[in-house]
Amino acid sequence: MMRSCLIAAAIAALLAGCGDSKIEHDYPDPLYRHLPGSQGHSYLPKEGAQGIFGEGGINLLGGDRQQGGGSGIGVNSFLWRASLDTLSFMPLASADPFGGVIITEWFAPPETPNERFKVTVYILDRQLRAHGLKVAVFRQEKGEAGWVDAAVESATHTEIENNILVRARELRIASL
Predict the structure, then answer these.
(1) Total domain count, the chain
(2) Residue 99's closest CA among 126, 78, 65?
(3) CA distance from start to end of the chain
(4) Is the Cβ–Cβ distance between 171 and 81 less than 8 Å?
(5) Cβ atoms of residues 128 and 70 within 8 Å
(6) pTM (2 decimals)?
(7) Whose CA is closest to 101, among 78, 75, 131?
(8) Domain range spanning residue 26?
(9) Distance of alpha carbon 78 from alpha carbon 157, whole angstroms
(10) Max CA distance (Å), the chain
(11) Do 89 and 119 reside in the same domain of the chain?
């Protein structure tokens, strides 16, 4: 018992020593300068400073701007933007630009309040092509027991995918 208390005290002392250190103020990084008017750890690169990966840094995501890559997201940016545009009438539950997944909340069209839809879009490729996109549509109907899953016409998935692809092509053409 005494030994475990000593070990716990030693771990606590080590963790307490890992508090906020001011080492960067004593030994500033030659590549960065402190951001004026900020407190804490706000730094900007110095003019002309170059890190170990060169002027442009390292491109972990690959791709080029012409194909919609390299824009800060992990999937084709034209498909991503087109998906958001196409589903803009539905509230978003989550959107992961690095994983390429967009999930909407349930949406009940005003003309049919007893049915609701939820859509999940998967962007599977960095290239602008039809095989790089998959749409899953879920439908529920309101019954006596509450909301119950219902079948979705297979054409619905395809129609949404086509709308996204058409919008993505428009965005790409507008960017040229």
Answers:
(1) 2
(2) 126
(3) 72
(4) yes
(5) no
(6) 0.58
(7) 75
(8) 22-58
(9) 19
(10) 73
(11) yes
CATH of the domain at 138: 3.30.530
Q: Find, among 57, 104, 102, 62, the residue nearest to 79 by Cα.
A: 102
Which residues, in sequence order, are bridge partners of residue 57?
none
Quick one: CA dihedral 159, 161, 163, 166, positive or negative? Answer: negative
How do the pLDDT tens digits run along the chain, 176 residues long?
666 555 666 565 555 555 554 444 444 444 444 444 444 444 444 454 444 444 444 444 444 444 444 445 678 889 999 999 999 999 999 999 888 999 999 999 999 999 999 999 999 888 888 888 999 999 999 989 899 999 999 899 999 999 999 999 999 999 88
Evaluate whether residue 9 is within a structural domain: no
How far apart, in whole angstroms, are the C-alpha atoms of residue 72 and residue 43?
21
